Request: fold
Amino acid sequence: MKKILHLTVFLAVVGALSAGVLSYVNELTAPIIEEQKLAAVKESLEVLYPGASFSELSTEQDETGLVTGAYLADGKGYIYQLQVVGYNSSTPIDFMMSIDLDGTVSGYAVLTQQETSGIGSRVADAEFVDKVVGSSVNDSIATLSGATISSTAVINGINAAKALYGLQAGVEVEAPSAPEVVEVVYTLSDDYSSNGAAVVSQDGTSFTVTANGFPGNDVNEFVIVVENGAIVSVTNTVFGDTAGIGEAAVSEDALSAYAGATLESEVDAVSGSTFTSKSVFAAMQAALKAASGEEASTDEGTEETETTEETVSVDGDSYTAEAQGFGGTVSVTVVLNGSDIVDVQVIGDSETAGIGTNAIEQLPAKIVEADSADVDAVSGATVTSTAILTAVKDALSQAGLTSAEGTSYTAEAQGFGGTVSVTVVLNGSDIVDVQVTGDSETAGIGTNAIEQLPAKIVEADSADVDVVSGATVTSTAILNAVKDALAAAQ
Amino acid sequence: MNRKENFIAGFVKENPVFGLYLGLCSALAISTTLDNAIGMGLCVTLILTASNMIISAIRKITPDEIRIPVYIVVIATLVSAVEMLMAAFMKELYANLGVFISLIVVNCIILGRAEAFASKNGIVDSALDGIGMGLGYTFSLLLISGVREFLATASWTITNPFNNQSFCTLVLTSLNHSRFPCSIHQQVHF
Reply:
């Protein structure tokens, strides 16, 4: 008996001591841990309600599971952190919104998103932000046409936050209806040049037309029968767009609705498949025009497709070029007014979000401001920046403008497979640009030198740079040609 | 001399992972990167040393019948304390190691050394044994994770657990078509 008592008391004492130690450590660390959790989001909270004191609220009452965090900014309003899945199912959209105590949505900011650049990514753009901010909790928000999937996801999140706000702030919030879908009315006489529709062949009144749908996807092919300037039938023969999304726009139901349409007709896009719908419109337009003989014989049409297939397409005053970025091809469209760069648009879906996308977001404005491709790369996103700048330079040279101001000198040297021609652009004694053409160099070996050396030479401002290992012959040829060109300049 | 031998034994002859086959579960789970290996190794060393000292200190008053529950309470207390401290001061490492911190409680190395060594030896010897065994465990983790991290990423990266800044990166880069198939490229950041 005494033994058992001894054991019990001993274990109890040990337990009590350890409980004491733990509660002491807990007391010491709990505020720090709490603070760190809050610090991770505090920066974003501060943006919404500067200078307020924050406390964390429970998100248990949220039925949708979209609200990942709720905070009360003392005396100012509520902040909700949300995570929704849009078009990119592997990376959800994270965003925050704040609702003032009076029920006005006072802030909305997307923290991370990897939606398609320029399309789904519009949920983070000013156009959408303006729609959300300032609206009341009882307003319903309309989706973005062309970005239905991403914007619907975000609006569902916003509605979840509003419902939770209603519960937490103790106010009545009208049950949000499903996101309102905006139908944008298209007319067949609109400009669909970006879809690159082309009549491939004609058989009587039946036209086979190809048109691009979603940027980067394969072409869609349609057989369109036109009689008396009106569409008789549209059939989709080749579907190159996104499976599961674009298909709705080429379903029999959707296509049969276009029967009887003329060039002046208004047509409805299929919500959620706007891009594919537009390719249908572009194809119908091309077929109608071809039928009326207004534009272009079959030949010209084919030629047009060829240009779109090449990486370079020139469209009025806008020039497009591509370059290899970090994750894939970066496509840049430069709009020129005379020699002024008016607009630069970059599409690079494969660039790393948060890194390469920084360059995609920031560089265009810089280039337009500087009116040249000679701007600094975005720090941390050098590869994407360089790709963008290279593509812009390419586009400018298509336009007959050299981005680098200076005098150019050309020289040639014998490479591995043939002649390597080098154009060096000098500004005073600065090497501003080096362009190498050497079509006979071995792909994967000599071409490495052609790709890598020019940048090195420009950076070093001299031809005294290291040869590209493994491509010594081509490197030496390039460097010799550069030296020749420099000698010619003096 | 005896102490020195005891200390060294933890590395080679009685290396907990390769010699005594203790803590294999955590050794496999946590040895994916060098960072995790260092973090986990140091945690285990710290807890092992402290638990060895405490258990050695109370070995004369601990009734034999309930020694295992007592050891478990001591170890669990230490682990919980270390876990809270890590959550407060080494957030990144805490996030990486996750559940394995809590599982140090049942890491056989710690209970094994408490039973096999600390319950029979003095405080100083037990502390040395804890440090030796802990470093031996860390060393084994480093060996395994070195291989695993290299196979997975073709590089070695060592990160400061306090601020998550990278100390040093070794990258294996292959140069296209050069005569040498590869070279080791070193980047050191301080």
About this structure: Residues 185-309 of chain A form one domain. Chain A touches chain B through 23 residues (CB under 8 Å). Residues 2-48 of chain A form the longest helix (47 residues).
